[in-house]
Structures are given as C-alpha cells and as structure tokens.
Specification:
478 residues; mainly beta; Porin; 3 domains; 9-stranded antiparallel beta sheet
Length: 478
C-alpha cells in the first residue's frame, strides 16, 4: 500500500502542464556501482523528459545492465527532477527515479527500484555533460549501493506543441518526428550458447521504431523488440541508431548502425551492451504507408550472442511540411499504474508465489484518423513478486468524446511478454482494454482503464487488468 501511495504522489507531482512548446530532452547515463553485490557492476540509463522554463522536469526512464554479466536486467519507470543553472555554462541537476523491473536472475521479489541522484556539469549549448553520484536500491535483490554517475543530455528540439490545437503554428528549423514503424523480425543465432548451456535456437520478435529527421538523407531512430515465438521467451532489446538513405526510384535504399542494451530468456548478452547494423530497401505503397525489408546483424559486446536479423517493416510516415502550412499530427502520451488480477495459470508450475503483480505503464498513441489511433505500450512489474516481468504491446484504438470533459476509448492489441517465471507460453499474447478519460486541463487528463490479456497459446496467463494514470495530449508539426 505504501508503494502505491508513493507512486501516486510522484505521478501527481510529475504531471506536466504542457502549455506552449515544451522542451523535450533525451539523456544517456552510466552508473558504476561501488559495491559488488550481484552480477551487475554498472547500469545504462535512457530518459525522455519535458523540462519547463523553471528547470523542473519529468518523464520516463529505462535502466538496464551494462557492465558485468547481468545482461537482461531492465527497469522502467518515472524520473522527476530539477535542473539549476549556476553560470552561463555550469549547472547542477538532482532527480529521483522510481520504477520496477528485474531479469537475468537478479531479482527474486518485487523489483521496485529507487534511484536518487545529483550531478554537476557543463552546458555546451547543443548538449550537456555531467558527473555525480547516485544511490541504487532494488527490492527483492541484493542491490543497494552508491554509484558514480556520468550523464550526456541533449535537447531534442522537436517541433512539438502541448495539447491538440487546430492551427496557428509555424515551422522552426528543428528536428521532426519522421515515422512510426511496427516491425516483425527473426534472430538467427550463429552457434551461440545460452546461459547455463544449450544451443540458442531461432527467435521471432515483434517491436516498433520511432524515427527523427532533420533532412531527407538521414534519420535517427529508437527501436524496441521482444520475443513472441521460438526460443528465448523473455528476451528484449532497445537500440538507438543512425540511418542513411539513398533514393533510386521507386525504392529508397538504406544502411544503419546502432548501439543498445538487451537480454533475458537465458540469452548470453554478457553485461547487456549490443551493437547492430543492417541494410534494406523501402517502397512507398499508399499515402503515408511505406513497406521495407532489411537484413542485418546484432551482437553483444562481451557475451556469447551474435545473430542475423532479417526483418519486415511497415512505416506510417508523417508529412514533410514542404510547400505550405504544416501538417498537424495528434498524439497522446500516457503513464500510470496497472494492477493485474491473476489466476493460478499466471505462473509456471513450481512457482513459489501466487501474488498478483502491479506494473508501471508507459503508452504512446498516434491518431491515424480523427478518432482512430495506433498505440504502443510498455509495462514493467514493481510489486507482486514478479520483478523482471515485462510486456510490450502494439494495437489499434478508437476514442469517442462524450462531452468536453469526458471521453471513452477501446483498444485491441498484440505483443510480447515474459520474465519472472510468468507463464507466457512463448511470449505472444493479445488483449483488449476500455478507458474513460476526464480532462483536468487542456494538457492533462485522468484516465481509468479495464481490460484483459491472454496468451495466444492455450494454457497460459489470462489476467484481468485495472489501470489508473494520466494522459497528455501532444501535437507534432510536419
């Protein structure tokens, strides 16, 4: 109960009033743990946050194993902090993270992670570098230690507007959101051994990619994928990268490189750091819809994991903004707490716990039509003896405004799940959810949801879910 009160308080405090054009920032960090208490010696952090003019910021973060042999340890949650300018170039920054996760056999309990930090640094204008200290504590594990911290922060300067205005905005010379891309891919291991022995077999993954572009010849991307079929149920990875494009009509050819973190499902990714590369071709089929195929490879830096990665992609491309008024695209960012109501089939045979997990959720919706949207959702457990249980979902939703303050929506989705001894039957699951939203301001709504999940193979998990959180309407210009 005290965890739920603390998290609800943080949600209320972190609810941003996204008036005007909020500042969106991306942070990469490394925590080197000073005490050797587990297989993890260091954590990588990725954060996306909104910063207001007073220096306060709030957003979502993912922490994962990066040094040691704990690849596959992931924690997702919220970060709330304050950036303070000392001089024109010097600053200090303090924040607290609260989230949930686990994996790589590092957490045997809830997986609630707390991480207060403070760092000092230098502002170069286009980016900031900082050094400092943090304290990392994960319930249900042996991890409770100070850490040395390095940070790299970059303002994204994306053409972003709070709320859902209908016009009145002009372009600035900034980076724009380019496309949202669902992905289906296979990982074909090259004679890899699992943790503990045994040959690693082929895996099928589902995921999504968001790309950002400033010109027509290159783009940056962030990619997330999880196993839904084949070997290594519970494996997931996140990759950041750069892609270069060449147009030879009617195709766009491309090559990309990426770095990231990944693990789980007994895949031996060592400390969890990955590198990737691929080449492919894309064709425009319908307005805003592009299809692509590519072939690549992914490899861990200090583990026994290298695989070929053939993939099929279907991109929803946003407007170019050329030759007139910008195209407005409506989004919703959501975050909250989801309680699962489970049955005996939720855990694998022999599991000691029968507790029902509570999970932190982060969702991004993009409206394809006036009322129809594509949704991407991520969940990590923070209580209920399920540290390391994660879900990633993709789906379609429909929203209907009952009044100026109240709207209803329904969603169906499919995705990947695994970890913590949960009976995910290979990882592929589907589900549905209904939500009721109450508008608090033009930039924030309170949302309540009810739904159900079900593994597509019979005999697996099929929990009901109840969620409480906030939605933040956003508009991007293209």
């Amino acid at each position: 109960m005290k965890n739920l009160i603390a998290i609800t308080t943080l949600l209320l405090a972190a609810s941003p009033a996204l008036a005007g054009r909020p500042n969106l920032e991306f942070r990469l960090g490394l925590d080197y743990l000073t005490l050797e208490q587990s297989d993890i010696r260091g954590l990588n952090g990725m954060s996306l946050s909104y910063r207001v003019t007073q220096g306060y910021y709030g957003g979502a973060s993912i922490y994962s194993a990066a040094i040691g042999t704990g690849g596959g340890f992931f924690v997702g949650g919220w970060e709330l902090g304050k950036h303070t300018t000392i001089t024109d170039n010097l600053f200090w920054d303090a924040s607290i993270f609260i989230g949930g996760g686990g994996g790589a056999s590092q957490v045997s309990g809830d997986g609630l992670m707390l991480r207060p930090q403070a760092h000092f640094g230098y502002d170069f204008g286009d980016y900031r570098i900082g050094v400092g200290a943090s304290f990392v504590s994960v319930s249900g594990s042996d991890i409770s230690t100070p850490a040395f911290t390095l940070t790299f922060t970059r303002p994204l300067n994306i053409e972003l507007v709070g709320g859902h205005p209908t016009g009145g905005f002009a372009f600035r010379d900034v980076t724009r959101v380019n496309a949202l891309t669902p992905i289906v891919r296979s990982y074909i291991p090259l004679n890899n051994k699992k943790r503990g022995g045994g040959e690693l077999q082929n895996m099928w993954l589902m995921g999504a990619e968001l790309t950002f572009a400033h010109d027509t010849n290159s783009e940056s991307f962030i990619q997330a994928s999880g196993v839904v079929y084949g070997d290594a149920e519970g494996y997931a990875d996140w990759v950041l990268g750069r892609r270069y494009l060449w147009n030879i009509a009617p195709l766009d050819f491309y090559a990309d490189i990426g770095v990231g973190i990944g693990g789980g499902g007994a895949v031996d990714t060592g400390g969890g750091l990955l590198i990737s590369a691929s080449v492919g071709a894309q064709i425009d089929t319908l307005e805003h819809l592009n299809l692509a195929v590519d072939l690549g490879a992914i490899s861990s830096l200090n583990g026994d994991f290298t695989a070929l990665t053939p993939a099929i992609k279907a991109s929803y491309a946003f407007g170019t903004g050329l030759g007139g008024m910008p195209e407005l695209v409506r989004w919703q960012a959501s975050t909250g707490v989801t309680q699962l109501i489970t049955s005996p089939e939720f855990r694998k045979l022999g599991a000691a716990s029968t507790a029902s997990p509570a999970m932190i959720s982060a969702e991004v919706d993009v409206f394809l039509l006036k009322n129809t949207y594509l949704t991407g959702q991520a969940y990590t457990a923070f209580s209920g003896d399920a540290g390391g249980f994660q879900m990633g979902l993709l789906g379609i939703g429909y929203s209907y405004a009952v009044s100026e303050e109240i709207s209803l929506s329904g969603e169906v989705f499919i995705g990947a799940a695994g970890g913590a001894g949960v009976n995910a039957k290979g990882g592929l699951l589907g589900g549905c959810k209904v939500e009721a939203d109450y508008r608090l301001t033009d930039f924030t709504s309170l949302t309540l949801g009810l739904g159900q999940l079900q593994t597509l193979q019979s005999g697996g998990l099929h929990p009901l879910l109840a969620s409480l959180g906030f939605k933040f309407p956003i508009t991007t210009l293209h």
